[in-house]
Amino acid sequence: xxxxxxxxxxxxxxxxxxxxxxxxxxxxxxxxxxxxxxxxxxxxxxxxxxxxxxxxxxxxxxxxxxxxxxxxxxxxxxxxxxxxxxxxxxxxxxxxxxxxxxxxxxxxxxxxxxxxxxxxxxxxxxxxxxxxxxxxxxxxxxxxxxxxxxxxxxxxxxxxxxxxxxxxxxxxxxxxxxxxxxxxxxxxxxxxxxxxxxxxxxxxxxxxxxxxxxxxxxxxxxxxxxxxxxxxxxxxxxxxxxxxxxxxxxxxxxxxxxxxxxxxxxxxxxxxxxxxxxxxxxxxx
Length: 285
Fold this sequence. Notes:
By secondary structure, the chain is α+β, with helices and mostly antiparallel strands. The protein has one domain. A four-stranded mixed beta sheet has the order 1-3-4-2, with helices on both faces. A hairpin with a 4-residue loop joins strand 3 and strand 4. Helix 2 packs antiparallel against helix 3, helix 2 crosses helix 7 and helix 10 runs antiparallel to helix 12. It is globular. The N and C termini lie far apart (66 Å).
């Protein structure tokens, strides 16, 4: 099923290279929290995490999630499972089976990686992208993005009806909130800081830091292809991937760690091991 990312924004921590977005209607619990948030405009990390959790649950139910025995899930668990408590965050992770190239992490610690991204990036490059997404959560960008989205949704309600309408959101009005969320984007400063977090994540865990440059180079090359129109819109508020690749290279060079990156073999197939039965012949007496 084609993953359509509206919730990306509830993070909103996303490396967004997918063209479409799907609406989500949150449950009553989340709606109550959102109503409270709209009224006060004060939002804690805990508030953002609670709403994100409900949103991701809905996203999981509307997307094809790789099962535990699926090759994509096995690979992600192998390379990322050891980092489930990275930087004091409690992270959970799943793979969405879709050709879209994307990954996101939400304020509640949910990490979702699209199989399309796993098809084009090796283990180190995937970790560079995931590290970037975690950086947005660790830096509180996801909480701030939620505030922006709520303000936008509040303005939509105020324009179309009475001033108290915003405090009485209905399920259908979440389409309006969704639009505000999708339009919310991280600043160039926030993206750059998330890139720095990714680099330090790779370095701290003794991965090849040059994978970050390589990952951004892949995305830069994509921007010249069929995704060009979409990327042009996105890049209006996001740093150019080529520029980000150059900065990643500069960081590695300054640390004396730079070396041209050679992509490793990529395999998302589930491997099964079979044990060969051995028989021992009885000696003739």
